[in-house]
Amino acid sequence: MADLHAPSAAVRRFDQGPQSVAEARRFVRSALDGVASDLVETAQLLVSELVTNAVLHARTEVEVSARVTDGTVRVGVGDRRPDRGLVPYRYPPYAGTGQGLALVEQLASRHGVDTGEETKTVWFELDPDGTPDGTAARADGWATSAPPSPSGAAAGTDGGTGPGATVTLVDVPAALYSASQQHRHTLLREVVLALACGHDLGVAPGELAAAQDMNHLISTCVTAALRQESSGAEVRSLPLVLPADAAPAVQALRTVLQLAEEAARDERFLTLPALPRSRVFRRWMFDQIVGQLAGGSPTAWTVVPREPGSSPSELVSWDAGQVRASRVPTIAADERNTIIAVNGPAADLLGWHADDLVGQPLTALIPEHLRKRHLTAFTSLLLSGQPRILGRSVPLPALHADGRLVPVRLFVQTQEMPDGRTVFVAQLTPRAAAPVAPSRPPGRARPAAPQQPGSAAPPAAPRREVSTGRGPAGMSALERLTLLADTAAALTNAPDLDEGVRQVGRVLTERLADWCAVDLFTAQAVQVERVCVVRRATGAAHPEEHEGRLPRVSETARGPLARALRGAGPLLLTEPSPPSRATSPLDTHYRELLRSMGTRSAVVAPLRARRQVIGALTVADGGAERQFTEEDLPLIDDLARALALGVDNARLYQETRNIAERLQRSLLPVLPELDHLQISARYAASSTTAQVGGDWYDSFVLPSGDIALVIGDVTGHNLDAAIAMSQLRSMLRGIAVDRQEPPATVLRRLDMANHSLYREATATCVYGLLKGPEEGPWELVHSSAGHLPPLLIGEDGRTRYLEEGAGVLLGLDPDLPRPTARDAIPARSTVLLYTDGLIERRHESLDHAMDRLRRHAAALAREPLDVFCDELLIGLGADSDDDIAVLAVRPTPAGGPTE
Predict the structure, then answer these.
(1) Can you spell out the DSSP letters for 162-185?
(2) Is the overall model pTM greater than 0.70, yes or no?
(3) How does DSSP assign 529-548, residue by residue?
(4) What is the mean pLDDT of each run of 10 residues along the chain (899 residues)?
(5) Which of 14, 63, 575, 764 is the 20 to 30 A CA-CA neighbour of 826?
């Protein structure tokens, strides 16, 4: 290296404050007077980056030297921290930090670092032609040093100087760590700049120094661990060697970042606060370091308890291909609220072409009355980092391309891109809709089925070693029974059918075969879909490539799969069939599957349920040491029967659930449209397994001109409850219209009629009449049969429960008297009728739940009635394990202001 301190070189020392960056820039311009302007500007840019690094990380006096030799510019930036090695972070171009060394690599002709006993100098050269040396701009062009030894890692600070201790971070998602690291560095940089400007953040200088040193040490160790771990896996376990007494410095880093987060939430920083998932990951990482330094055992990120908006279940970085391949309606948006990926089921659900939606603002799919609130909530999430609906199953309407509203349940999670940016991935579950038909072409890959919103990931079947060798022939009777039981349990415990079948595949490949495939007829039994291919060992073949819609089972299909799908088998395959026997596309497709998976022997068995063939199971071995034989067929036949029974039960349950929900929604009435009265209603099925129930609402105009308001709930959550609900609703409307009697009398007649149909069935109900001329005043006359009281919300936000008129449930004793209540309803106030699913939660008192409803309703008192109802469901109905019905009425004087 040439001597930067030669007599012809200009040298100047600068203080360690941020002002040194601008001073160094001016010094370089002066020292390079007469040099071509483009070289001077490049030198100024690069020296700004290097001096900034020295100010932020070395925190010592900075020495800058510059000279020109034969037209080549050479600049050096030195500090007095030789122990502080360089760590190029390879951040994306738009990241707010970590760009300095990358810029030097890209723009300098040559670059390097010289380390002495007391100083470290980073230098670069710029040739007159301005062409960077391609060999120098490599990812390892800085010859980055190994992580500092524990004894010198934090010399001169409180970062710890004791002997080294190994801390292992288990199951670290690479993309999530990258995003978290970028955010840590950006926050710490803003803290340094804020303190230099005299802002009081509550951070002591010594505490900040310890935090910066520990942050640098953690980043250096992780970078070195990632470099040594060359597998390219998305999830890795990283060993970090840290000082044994580093816990206080880690706590200092945690404290400084918490204070920085508060400043970011208060909008005192340009950096936005961390999103929930990144925040929980950072807390987990610090807890692991401190806990393991104290002697604790590692806890994997993958088993961190789930919190709304921060679930660790999504470990791989986001990939648009996963969205497009999923059968669940899915939309992804970026931090600019712009749609970046849509799959076919989502586009079909909302009446768009998928390509037309990409690039659109997300508000294109949000009803107009909710757009302003969506933008407010989305901005609040970015500015505060506090989630409202992330990780929760929320009932709300989506906007169809033709302008109508589509009731859905929305489940939003965040995922990180490989470069650290955040993507918001939303799954839309249609409410009261038939199952989404699979639309993947043959061979199209599909990711694992998504989890049921709000559920934990199902545990994988435990790996058991077979005492006498893998395969049926080497199993004892107990091991065979255990395999059958585990196969049934894997399907039963899964959140949905697709994931259950995949879990069965994992069990079989762990204990029986090298790979297996499950093919199922679609609901119409006219086409076959390969729902999963699971391989025990990793290899060149990608089993997902064979999943998807298969060719039809034509009359010319004579291969083993076609025979099994017609009911033959189980069939033992011990040698490949010649190509001439592949007489149909299905035969060819199956033969290619066996060939590409390296199959030596296989068994294909039909899946039979209720005297019908619903699919086929293939189990196969590829090793020379073990092949399937005739002795294996009985066990595989038993496994196929257990699998078929589970698949059939799951399909029957889903079919029954959808029938009940469609029945429920088909009975939801068309609300009357009146000039002086606004009426709005919402219905949402449960977000959990109990998706159907007996909730209903109704509103109609009586011949007398009174407005009837009804809400009710039949006991139970099944098809019987939905049927009973439909009969009660029809009977009540018929009695009310025919008799036009007071609410208490109508409920008594309804109870008598109900008793003749269902002697043991019970239900709750509120029947009310809103009376008054168009110009007001108005009065609500109502009677309650064991139902929660209506809530009156005044225009000024004051609330009152209408608790008079309460009587016993329907179905107890039709002869008991029922009271009637009368309440004045002021203009522009809101009467809210609701079912218990809106407010009741396990382990919470009813009083507390009703107080929460009052607060939410009061805050929405002046909102348009549609917004009022939707916001109640969003705020109170997310993750409800019961169905919900809401009916809201707001009288508006004729000629008065309208919404």
Answers:
(1) S-EEEEEEEEEEHHHHHHHHHHHH
(2) no
(3) EEEEEEESS--S--GGGG-E
(4) 52 87 92 89 91 84 91 91 73 59 86 88 87 49 48 41 79 83 87 84 87 87 75 72 91 93 87 85 92 90 64 58 77 90 89 90 91 84 76 85 88 77 85 41 38 40 40 70 84 76 87 89 79 71 71 84 87 76 80 86 90 89 77 89 87 74 73 92 70 81 95 79 83 93 94 78 92 91 95 95 93 88 95 93 88 94 92 83 90 66
(5) 764
